[in-house]
TrEMBL record:
Protein name: ABC transporter ATP-binding protein
Entries under PANTHER family matching the protein: ABC TRANSPORTER DOMAIN-CONTAINING PROTEIN (PTHR42798:SF4), LIPOPROTEIN-RELEASING SYSTEM ATP-BINDING PROTEIN LOLD (PTHR42798)
ABC transporter domain sequence ranges: 17-216
Residues making up the signal peptide according to the UniProt record: none
Keywords for the protein's UniProt record, in alphabetical order: ATP-binding, Nucleotide-binding
UniProt GO molecular function: ATP binding
Coiled-coil region(s): none
Organism annotation: Bombiscardovia nodaiensis
Record InterPro entries: AAA+_ATPase (IPR003593), ABC_transporter-like_ATP-bd (IPR003439), ABC_transporter-like_CS (IPR017871), P-loop_NTPase (IPR027417)
Amino acid sequence: MKHQTPQQAGPASTKGLHIISLEKRFGQRVLWSQLSVSIRPSEMVAITGPSGSGKSTLLNCIGLLEEPSAGSIEVDGKTITHMGAHRSRLFRRNRLGYLFQDYALIDEANIEDNLTVAMQATQRSKRKHLIGQALERVGLEGRQKEPIYQLSGGEQQRVALARLLVKKPNIILADEPTGALDSANAQMVIDSLRAMAKTGGHCPHRHPRRQHCTSLR
Ligand SMILES: Nc1ncnc2c1ncn2[C@@H]1O[C@H](COP(=O)(O)OP(=O)(O)OP(=O)(O)O)[C@@H](O)[C@H]1O
Ligand SMILES: [Mg+2]
């Protein structure tokens, strides 16, 4: 696998997300190897490549849902790979936000409850106000009490985006985040991701309107 790097991993700055000589194989099959990418704070990076080249697998490795076969991933100078179950869970809960194509929402619960799940670190008294603001931002104003299963695919994706807006994670992993959306809503998602990246997150995702591109092929 070849790859391009927005900025080669190196000691210049430990701030940010650093993927260092990462390899993933399934049995004999090597998806990618010697993959090194550094993503600086506030940077938004797109991962491109043909179907099956390992884009989702790379996001899953960064999200600690899968173990790489070799190499390591560092965030702000700390190695996050091979951390053990407890610390991995804390890292996912406190620092990571996901925007995946299947939304990962609780179907039977309503919009408000789905957002509240992501707000464990937020004072209770502030939650309703922040939820209202986030829903307004994604065009779902006043729809707190609607159950997820009644929403269209695009509306569900916008709830998933609102969940990121209320959680404010340091790192956002987005896998085809605009797949189910029309162009206006797709633009809204990209603009929101960009705004979140500017205010402090690192944001590797897969989308053609990219600032930088890491390519798996
Ligand atoms: N647990 C697993 N065991 C074996 N092979 C796997 C496993 N998970 C993923 N793969 C294989 O790894 C390859 C990369 O999968 P991945 O989902 O990362 O691709 P992708 O680049 O995201 O593709 P797409 O653009 O279609 O979403 C695929 O061929 C897939 O079948
Ligand atoms: Mg994929």
